[in-house]
From TrEMBL:
Residues 27-186 form the Histidine kinase/HSP90-like ATPase domain. Gene3D superfamilies: 3.30.230.80, 3.40.50.11260, Heat shock protein 90, C-terminal domain (1.20.120.790), Histidine kinase-like ATPase, C-terminal domain (3.30.565.10). This is Chaperone protein HtpG. It holds the Pfam family HATPase_c_3. One of its GO terms (molecular function) is ATP binding. InterPro entries: HATPase_C_sf, HATPase_dom, HSP90_C, Hsp90_fam, Hsp90_N, Ribosomal_Su5_D2-typ_SF. One of its GO terms (cellular component) is cytoplasm. SUPFAM superfamilies: ATPase domain of HSP90 chaperone/DNA topoisomerase II/histidine kinase (SSF55874), HSP90 C-terminal domain (SSF110942), Ribosomal protein S5 domain 2-like (SSF54211). It comes from Nocardia yunnanensis. ATP binds at residues 34, 38, 80, 85, 99-101, 125-130, 176, 351. The lineage of its organism: Bacteria, Bacillati, Actinomycetota, Actinomycetes, Mycobacteriales.
Length: 575
């Protein structure tokens, strides 16, 4: 009809769709997990919305997800009666790539060729969600009506087309249905035939068993009727619920398989990778709660952008309350995903209340301790592979806690790793550094800078290298922030080699050099005076030093001055 509008996908979105269509992504079954996951989110949102807004006209009497198969037409429909989407939301959420990504990732995406390794990795990183339907469908039709609204929206796109159509519907059932016009099944064994009842049953069981809402399907059953000669076969249709609906976090760890945990992780985190660590928690007593936390194996690409949301969901007695509950996880642990289910909160709880709530504060404290102790265990393990994976992905974020979480500073310091002059390739813990310190060395030395090369070439480091004293090489921007407030580790001061007087000599050496120094002071008195006068406007003091070996001079800051890099950062930001 004339009301059908043709709209274009964003360039990246179209490219992503192309990749999906030609994807050899190893596991096409995952499209159903994504649709069910979206449907489940939509039902959660509706329940919450009706709770908050008593005037919302919505039917919540039988919230569920439904699979429907038309075997002859080869159409599979996934339907929910959840919150639905307005027309604008369909265009926004479905028509464009919601997670717009960084410039670098966009570029990668536009360059990727369907079917190659890079494409697969991108798919995994993006966590394609809705678009994964194009792995199995030639055409996808979405019909939706937002709860409380009267008109609906129909969205449709064919695989490979740069456009989609959108149409207003005078009538539509509340919620969303997604119909997949399945590609012809080319495998003879029907292993990937998504019109097969057993196949759908298998996928739901495998990926979505824990979904709290019933996932229903009409199933045909053949029964015999009558007696003896009159016996006839009859086909009955019966609606079955395919999932057990058991919240995973309420089940003891011994009863849940790793596979189940992994699928749950993908659902709550909207991610496609596997978790690096699974952390089930249970607390009884005054503050009763259960939690199931995950440390992902890969950092999302937006971990350092403002949009990044903290990934812990809050439930109250099995009822979903909110995503990204910031009150439960500090910013520096924003990569942690999972759920916390609290017993004694009101279902009515708002963010404002949460901020004041003592129980939430207690829970948060324990979650933080538990996450940090998990990292500590990885660090202390015989096989440190997981620790290094963790550190590579999240070390820079965790170090933010050195500044923002003084209560846990010791633990964070203990699980942190730093580059140092001791090794070009391997990072060291502070404990290992201290172990290597010679008797005469009393401090832990570091230098911050933009790169290892810059630090190694700096004159500040010469005397340390000449004497074989190890220096931590700190090149992450976040290092600049915490070194100012973390002044010691296990009683050893942490000292910048770019600031103040650094005393590198033993007692014997001191006596020897004192005589030499006096002589030098006399010899160079005139030069020093001249330098001092000439540079008067720019420097506080000109003095002889024993810290240089090959460079003739270097500039040092006072103990309380900014480091050179921080000074540059401030200048760059116009302060
Ligand atoms: P994600 O779930 O990670 O946000 P998706 O691509 O799976 O990414 O979905 C994009 C968005 O589209 C969702 O965030 C949601 O807002 C909306 N959406 C998708 N499916 C549904 C649905 N069944 N009901 C309501 N909204 C939906
Ligand atoms: Mg999704």
């Amino acid at each position: 009809t004339e009301h059908i509008e043709h709209l274009e996908f964003q360039a990246e979105t179209h490219q992503l769709l192309e990749l999906m269509i030609h994807s050899v992504y190893s596991n096409k079954d995952t499209f159903l997990r994504e649709l069910v996951s979206n449907a489940s989110d939509a039902l959660d949102k509706l329940r919450l919305e009706t709770f908050r807004d008593k005037d919302l006209h919505a039917d919540t009497s039988d919230l569920h997800i439904e699979l429907e198969v038309d075997r002859d037409a080869r159409v599979l429909t996934v339907r929910d009666n959840g919150i639905g989407m307005s027309r604008a939301e369909v265009v926004d959420l479905i028509g464009t790539l919601a997670k717009s990504g960084t410039a670098a990732l966009r570029k990668q995406l536009l360059e990727a060729k369907a079917g190659d390794q890079q494409a697969e990795e991108l798919i995994g990183q993006f966590g394609i969600g809705f678009y994964s339907t194009f792995m199995v469908a030639d055409k996808v039709t979405l019909v939706t009506r937002k709860a409380g609204e009267t008109t609906g929206t129909r969205w449709e796109s064919e695989a490979g087309s740069p456009t989609y159509t959108i149409e207003e519907l005078a009538e539509a059932p509340q919620g969303t249905s997604v119909s997949l016009h399945l590609k012809p099944s080319d495998d003879e064994d029907h292993l990937f035939d998504y019109t097969q009842e057993w196949k759908l049953r298998e996928i739901v069981k495998k990926y979505s068993d824990f979904i709290a809402w019933p996932i229903r399907m009409d199933v045909e059953r053949t029964v015999m009727e009558g007696e003896g000669e009159d016996k006839t076969e009859k086909t009955l249709v019966e609606t079955q619920t395919l999932n057990s609906q058991k919240a995973l976090w309420t089940r003891p760890r011994s009863e849940v398989s790793d596979e189940e945990y992994k699928e749950f992780y993908k659902h709550v985190s909207h991610a496609w990778d596997d978790p690096l660590e699974i952390i089930p928690m249970k607390a009884e007593g005054t503050f009763e709660y259960q939690a199931l936390l995950f440390i992902p194996s890969h950092a999302p690409f937006d971990l350092f952008t403002r949009e990044h949301k903290r990934g812990v969901q809050l439930y109250v007695r099995r009822v979903f309350i909110m995503d990204n509950c910031e009150e439960l996880m500090p910013e520096y642990l924003r990569f942690v995903k999972g759920v916390v289910d609290a017993q004694d909160l009101s279902l009515n709880v708002s963010r404002e209340i949460l901020q004041q709530d003592r129980q939430i504060q207690m829970i948060r404290k324990r979650l933080v301790k538990k996450v940090l102790s998990t990292v500590k265990d990885l660090r202390g393990a015989e096989d440190k592979t997981k620790y290094w994976e963790f550190w590579k992905e999240f070390g820079r974020v965790l170090k933010e806690g050195l500044l923002s979480d003084p209560d846990n500073r010791e633990t964070i310091l203990a699980v942190s790793a730093f580059a140092s002059t001791h090794s070009d390739s391997e990072q060291t813990s502070l404990a290992e550094y201290v172990e290597r310190m010679p008797e005469s060395q009393s401090a832990i030395y570091y230098m911050t800078g933009e790169s290892r090369q810059q630090i190694e070439n700096s004159p500040h480091i010469e005397a340390f290298q000449a004497k074989g004293i190890e220096v931590l090489v700190l090149t992450d921007p976040v290092d600049e922030m915490w070194v100012g407030s973390v002044t010691e580790f296990e009683g050893k001061p942490i000292v910048s080699i770019a600031k103040g007087e650094v005393d590198l000599e033993s007692e014997d050496e001191k006596k020897e050099s004192e005589a030499l120094r006096e002589q030098q002071e006399k010899d160079f008195a005139e030069v020093l005076t001249w330098l001092q006068q000439t540079l008067d406007a720019d420097v506080k003091e000109v003095r002889l030093t024993n810290r240089l070996t090959t460079s003739p001079a270097c500039i040092v800051g006072d103990v309380f001055d900014f480091t050179p890099m921080l000074e540059r950062m401030y200048r760059a930001s116009g302060q």
